[in-house]
Amino acid sequence: GIIEELNDALENYKFYEAADKIYHFIWHEFCDWYIELVKPSLKQGNKTSEAVLVDTLDQILRLLHPFMPFITEEIWHHIPSSEKSLVVTSFPQARKDLKDEEADREMKFLQEGIVGIRTIRAENRIPPKKKIDLCVKVKGERKVGKKAEAEIIRHNKEYIQALANIRQVEILDHFPKQKKFLKGIAGSWEIAIPIEEGVFNLNQEKERLEKELSKIMLEIEKIESRLKNTNFLNRAPKEVVKETKGKLRDLRDKKQSWKKASSIFSP
Known about the structure:
Layout: H1 2-11, H2 15-43, H3 47-64, H4 69-76, H5 101-123, E1 132-137, E2 143-144, E3 147-148, H6 149-155, H7 157-164, E4 166-172, E5 181-186, E6 189-194, H8 202-228, H9 230-235, H10 238-262
Parallel strand pairs: 1-4
Antiparallel strand pairs: 1-6, 2-3, 5-6
Helix pairs in contact: 1-2, 2-3, 3-4, 8-10
């Protein structure tokens, strides 16, 4: 986590790296994601969410204090604290008992999907304020850690709707053939957006899918060539060979998904 990474950088006198890490955490984790995710709870007056948000801000100000002492001190005096000054508070230390790798995996899965949906919206010039319906195709056996993908999406529908401006999220085993969809891959999600007249730029989406498919096929060719190289197979560590074969399987699966997504443009 950020506390462990920051402490490690400071202890090794890597001050630029430390400053860069806290900068990216504040902007890209705390502001872009956490604050947006907690807004619905705050609107409902959830006191627990408020307390966690204040505590998180307190820890961030402590981490940032060595780099911006005066500004952090001023902001810190506007949040509840038993200490008189930020400069005399203890510097945060990582707690391994609070680390939740399962939650990290689930959050990464959700972030990839939401970012992918936003990208598809932007590339097709779907107005940010325009609410759209979303269909997600999942296979029952696919999991993220211990939980099924469908369960994670279903449990976090509210967040997906808020962060991607979705009207309704529907989880399906397959996309209905009688309906016309704009299909795409959002992270590891296979998604479809029901086509509404005047909303999508279909030509642009076709070009995007073809470009991504070409990239995947090129990557597959490179890995296949590497796995045909006897020097690589004989000299590389077994773990590296195994990882390379796994990457090839994943890319082949991805290739099939992208081909299916492109099928909407077939005559």
